[in-house]
């Protein structure tokens, strides 16, 4: 009986061990499955990260077919390959559609045509809604960037909401580019990349009611939120900007007054990063005043030149008139002198004739006397 009990106990122990072994095996299998799932998720996340664009480049375009090809080519051929390029064709009537059709086979490229024309601000806002990149960049269609531009800025973007680069500019009728003073960067958004999550979190978009200086307004509202930012060093990698109507250099005095006295300024000043904003607007106003002074001086110089030309013309006419009168007087005197000379000559001739007659008569008298 004791032996049977021992055998039964051993069997129970063996069964218990088998159950424990199976449980451990099952637990290990489940653990391995969980690890595999986690690895798969990490791989998926990594793939998503690799597929997700690092920078979405937004290009609003309106009748810029002449420059658009260059702009897109520089955007797609960035050394930072993981980018997407979004062009918003704002009801262009030139060859813009023809240019855009050249790039439709590139998976990184997309474009949207809108009707009727809505302006650059609306185009940028649409591009921001479509963007899937970690950061957003802007290029105006008649501008372009160096091929290394976005890689250069992205390398500085860790733990930053915005990274500010450098840009140079030219006038509309020139291909020579010049560096902007640092304070003028506020009037251009193209030299900066903006973290999309920060933009979306604060629902930041361009003000479509503004006719000019929408770049400055947008940057001011962003800075008012005190973003984490960094200024990129000047390493010769630029955004090439064509100065146009609406640029910082062309703001009207009334707009600057509104910025320096209105709500926009209070938002801008609230950023601790820009305590010198008053100085910035002071410089803007000084530039406007200098512009008006130069125009006034040019007008005054033109008036002086006009008066000088008129006076000179009148003086020439006066001198010419006097010369004519003098010549007439001289001609009259010459005619009188000639008449006097003729009269004198006639008188001399008459005297000579009389003398000849007298001599002849004397000779006759002499002959008569001799004969007698």
Automatic annotation (TrEMBL):
Keywords associated with the record: Coiled coil, Glycosyltransferase, Membrane, Signal, Transferase, Transmembrane, Transmembrane helix
Transmembrane residue ranges: 289-311
Coiled coil: 24-52
Domain of life (superkingdom): Eukaryota
InterPro entries: Glyco_trans_2-like, Nucleotide-diphossugar_trans
Residues covered by the Glycosyltransferase 2-like domain: 56-192
UniProt keyword Transmembrane present: yes
Extent of the signal sequence: 1-29
Keyword Manganese recorded: no
Record-linked Pfam families: Glycos_transf_2
GO molecular function ontology, one term from the record: glycosyltransferase activity
Record PANTHER family: GLYCOSYLTRANSFERASE (PTHR22916), GLYCOSYLTRANSFERASE EPSH-RELATED (PTHR22916:SF51)
Protein name (Swiss-Prot/TrEMBL): Nucleotide-diphospho-sugar transferase
Source organism of this protein record: Anaeromyces robustus
Lineage of the species this protein comes from: Eukaryota, Fungi, Fungi incertae sedis, Chytridiomycota, Chytridiomycota incertae sedis
């Amino acid at each position: 009986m004791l032996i049977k009990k021992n055998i039964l106990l051993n069997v129970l122990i063996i069964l218990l061990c088998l159950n424990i072994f199976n449980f451990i095996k099952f637990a290990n299998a489940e653990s391995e499955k969980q690890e595999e799932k986690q690895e798969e998720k990490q791989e998926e996340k990594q793939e998503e990260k690799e597929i997700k664009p690092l920078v979405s480049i937004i290009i609003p375009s309106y009748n810029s077919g002449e420059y658009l090809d260059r702009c897109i080519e520089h955007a797609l051929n960035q050394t930072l390959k993981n980018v997407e390029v979004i062009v918003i064709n704002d009801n262009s009537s030139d060859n813009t559609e023809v240019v855009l059709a050249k790039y439709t086979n590139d998976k990184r490229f997309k474009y949207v045509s809108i009707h009727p024309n809505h302006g650059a601000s609306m185009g940028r806002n649409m591009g921001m809604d479509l963007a899937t990149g970690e950061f957003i960049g802007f290029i105006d269609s008649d501008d372009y960037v160096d091929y290394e531009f976005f890689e250069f800025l992205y390398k500085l973007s860790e733990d930053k909401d915005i990274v500010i680069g450098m840009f140079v500019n030219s006038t509309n009728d020139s291909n020579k580019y010049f560096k902007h003073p640092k304070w003028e960067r506020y009037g251009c958004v193209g030299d900066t990349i903006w973290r999309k999550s920060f933009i979306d979190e604060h629902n930041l978009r361009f003000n479509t009611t503004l006719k000019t200086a929408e770049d400055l307004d947008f940057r001011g509202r962003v800075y008012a939120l005190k973003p984490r930012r960094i200024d990129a060093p000047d390493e010769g990698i630029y955004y090439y900007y064509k100065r146009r109507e609406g640029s910082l250099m062309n703001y009207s005095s009334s707009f600057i007054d509104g910025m320096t006295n209105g709500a926009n300024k209070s938002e801008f000043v609230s950023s601790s990063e820009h305590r010198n904003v008053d100085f910035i607007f002071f410089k803007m106003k000084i530039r406007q005043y200098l512009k008006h002074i130069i125009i006034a001086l040019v007008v005054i110089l033109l008036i002086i030149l006009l008066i000088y030309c008129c006076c000179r013309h009148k003086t020439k006419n006066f001198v010419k008139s006097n010369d004519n009168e003098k010549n007439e007087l001289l001609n009259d005197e010459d005619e009188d002198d000639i008449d006097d000379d003729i009269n004198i000559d006639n008188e001399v001739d008459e005297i000579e004739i009389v003398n000849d007659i007298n001599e002849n008569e004397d000779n006759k008298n002499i002959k008569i006397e001799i004969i007698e």
